[in-house]
Amino acid sequence: MADKITSVIARESDGNIQITFTIPYELIQKAEEETVTEIAKDIEIPGFRKGTAPLSKVREKISQETLIEHSLRHLLPKALSDAVTENKLRIAVYPRFELVSAKENEAWQIRGTTCELPEFELGDYKKEVQGTLRADSIIVPGKENKEKTREEKEAAILKTLVEKVKINIPKILIEEEADSRLSSLLARLEKLGLALESYLASINKKAEDLRAEYALQAKDAISIDLILNKIAETENLKVDEKEVENALKISQTTNAGKEDPESRKRLIESILRRRAALDFLISLA
Fold first, then answer.
1. Is 88 left (phi over 0), alpha (psi -120 to 50) or beta?
2. Mind listing the pLDDT tens digit for each residue in 87-135?
3. Structural domain spans, the chain
4. Model confidence pLDDT, tens digit, residues 172-186
5. CATH 1.10.3120 fits 125-282, yes or no
6. Which CATH superfamily includes the segment(s) 6-115?
């Protein structure tokens, strides 16, 4: 149909999913008109009261970049929802969109990059973890032997799981997590009044080295979260609702107004579920 947005799905070897949308120009024109009408309500143009300027005058004041961006906001959410439903996708992150083609009087093409959570097998993870814990508890004559701390046991278990459970982490997931870590670093440096260049010089690293390091950390962190969540599911580990509510109350005092309570609750449940999985793994010793 000429008035319908179509989509094509392509799965990449790095785990990413490309969704290419073709949007009929008639829908683009309609979305642009809606955008101009929307912006006209708040824009101030000399000689006219706020919200009363002719749409032709309003359009003259809107940059092409802004017009495209706002118009696509009208179209892409439903187009994405339809593509996800039609192709039975279970996307893990909201797509990164890029404009492929936007010619006058021709259908536009937009490409979105996203991914699904990877499928993987845990293998005989209990045996691997037990082997790790027993190896750490072996007494070696002539050496100082002391009981491993909880933190040391956890670190050894997580290292074993990352090494033994093979997961193909989609590239976009790694990039998003690495970006988040870099953003946090930049925020901390800004609070300290430090420039990124000065920080890099102090640790004797280049920007690309830091990025590669964060990407590796991101890959391991994502793998750990996925593995622990799957272990919790496999072992049918439950989270105490009272513990969730207590943690939620504490988080609300420190994150008031910053996050949706329901999203916060899901995050806390996920964290506690992974903690339960770690408790279970340590008990295998």
1. left
2. 999 999 999 999 999 888 899 999 999 999 999 999 999 999 999 988 7
3. 6-115, 125-282
4. 999 999 999 999 999
5. yes
6. Trigger factor ribosome-binding domain (3.30.70.1050)
